[in-house]
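1st attempt posting a full record on here, be nice pls
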Amino acid sequence: MSVTDRARADRVPVDERWLGLDRRSRTPALVVLLVAVLFTGVLPVVNGAIDQDDATVSGDVLLVGPGATITPPVGWQLESGLRDTDDPAVPTAPPVVLSRDGVTVVLTTVATSDSPGKVLDRYEDISGLTDDIPDFTVNGPRAGFTTDSGVAGAVESVSGADVEGLAAAFTIGGDGVVVATATGAAGQLAPVLDDVRTMLRSLRMDGEAS
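the predicted structure (as tokens):
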């Protein structure tokens, strides 16, 4: 058989072609194409969405409890919580969890008519802080702390094995107290302490002046 005859024998009949391609090779070709699209287009988009940080930006307001909000400093990672622009249908705001440079700040609301001081007296019963931190201790005397909008509270320093932190509580009405903690490994809290204080001072109730 000549080269010409062999080429004619290998030629795909017209009725077995699709868009000029051999129908018999269409499925493998499409699989290769889809895999290429997946790796060059879809996966990078998915990975980008997963890896994207949810950092706080200027103007963010986070829901802490019934009528209570805070304005976080820019650049903190929002691990948990709702912004005031999120779905208002959520019946109860989850705890706010923010992190930065190894420090984690948690704010949540406790249903109680006790004063902030009394809440801190039994703080370990509410948050499990002393269970989570070995060698837990209060570092100094408790101090009063009032937010920029006039919400009264109390704050104290705490520490444990290789951990340092701050605990605070604020009255947000007759039947609620906002409890906050900021904890990190030894030496990590000091660099962001101003941010933490700014965060606590921003706590306000609906209807109060900003």
